[in-house]
Specification:
The protein is of the alpha+beta class and 373 residues long. It contains 6 helices and 23 strands. It folds into 3 domains: 2-114, DNA Polymerase III, Chain A, domain 2; 125-248, Roll (DNA Polymerase III, Chain A, domain 2), CATH 3.10.150.10; 252-366, DNA Polymerase III, Chain A, domain 2 (Roll), CATH 3.10.150.10.
């Protein structure tokens, strides 16, 4: 095996695929980076749940394949002279020579025969949205997925496809996040493929590749896997099995109190008070919704803090506790401008939704925290 490529291209590919390579202590083969050279140079990482393959432009002199040690391979390439091309050459005993200018390394690789087969997708259906729309769908929901293994389906994001609309949904038992974006193209003929749950681990890797651009991107999927392609990189992740919870039944259709507030102003207030919170689950943010403003305060082992945020409307004296991290994450997912706060009483959930009645691009629901006396 022998090829020549730019250090920057090789370093970028290693950085992308190494994110899913299992940590130290794992099997030496699966804990490495798969390198295969045929008609092109491909680098792959796979943790048995999410697989990433990245293509590197190169002059191919001899075909071959091996498993390169991680993180050593990346550390070497990152330290090579940036203005020099990199030459990789491997002999029959899997000794790999890495050369760039006067820098020269020889490291031991492993046979790629033992590397597990990378997952494939039969592409029974596809979803096409713009790159920034997909980014908003993931950014706006993936933080709300569950972390516990007790309910594995909640560790993924639900995608729902309707005529002209693609929707992403996540919930963890304490909050719900919903984002909606325009959908291009026809719906899958099989109705089962119009509703699927994607592993949050895989979506987070896709999230890192997305930019705020209007270019269309396509997700191809079947009943078990989803594949995302962008540039020279492919991400394949799991589709989780099971029936997702009926989140709609938990969302109130109407609220007795509806307050219009500047998103950035409320976000800044919550962010300031959150500085004092060491454990958001134990130290609730206390909110007192009055006429024209909400008074917020918290008291923790770090000290005390209070702040006030103005809004349009009357909160009717509703006094409630709220997990500051949950509220802050929802507000960070909402675009600047105005947002509506929906309330009923101290024991009912808070909802955040667009101030424009014609806009249905997002909805966030957060359960209140019981306050001690």
């Amino acid at each position: 095996m022998k090829f020549i490529c730019s250090r920057e291209d090789l370093n970028n590919a290693i950085s992308i695929v190494s994110r899913v390579v299992p940590a130290k202590g794992s099997n030496l083969v699966t804990g490495g980076i798969l390198l295969r050279v045929k008609d092109r140079v491909l680098l792959s990482g796979y943790n048995m749940e999410t697989g990433i393959t990245s293509r590197v432009s190169a002059e191919i002199l001899e075909e071959g394949g091996c498993v390169m040690p991680n993180p050593l391979f990346g550390e070497i390439v990152r330290k090579l002279p940036s203005d020099e091309d990199v030459t990789l050459e491997m002999d029959k005993d899997f000794n790999v020579e890495i050369t760039a200018g006067i820098a020269h390394f020889t490291i031991k690789a492993l046979d790629d025969f033992e590397f597990p087969d990378l997952p494939t997708v039969s592409a029974r259906a596809s979803l096409t949205v713009t790159e920034n729309s997909l980014r908003r769908m993931i950014d706006g929901t993936v933080f709300c997925t569950a972390v516990s293994d007790n309910r594995p389906l909640l560790k993924g994001v639900l995608f729902e496809l309707e005529e002209g609309t693609a929707r992403s949904v996540a919930l963890d038992g304490f909050r719900i996040a919903v984002r909606s974006e325009p959908l291009e193209g026809d719906l899958p003929q099989d109705e089962e493929l119009r509703r699927f749950v994607v592993s949050s681990a895989g979506l987070r890797e896709i999230q890192k590749l997305l930019k705020d651009e209007e270019e269309p991107v396509t997700l191809q999927y079947d009943n078990t896997r989803l594949m995302f392609s962008l540039g020279g990189t492919e991400v394949v992740c799991r589709i989780l099995e099971g029936k997702y919870l009926d989140y709609r039944s938990a969302v109130p259709s109407e609220r007795s109190v509806n307050l219009c507030v500047n998103t950035a102003a409320l976000r800044n207030c919550v962010e300031r008070l959150h500085l004092m919170v060491e454990d958001a689950a134990q130290n609730a943010l206390r909110l007192n919704f009055g006429d024209g403003s909400v008074e917020m305060n918290t008291a923790t082992v770090r000290g005390r803090a209070k702040d006030t945020c103005s809004y349009a409307g009357n909160g009717k004296g509703i006094y409630m506790g709220m997990n500051s991290r949950y509220l802050l994450e929802a507000l960070k997912a909402v675009e600047d401008g105005e947002v509506m706060i929906g309330l009923d009483n101290a024991g009912s959930p808070m909802t955040l939704y667009p101030a424009d009645p014609s806009d249905s691009s997002f909805l966030y629901l957060i359960l209140p925290v019981r306050l001690s006396a």
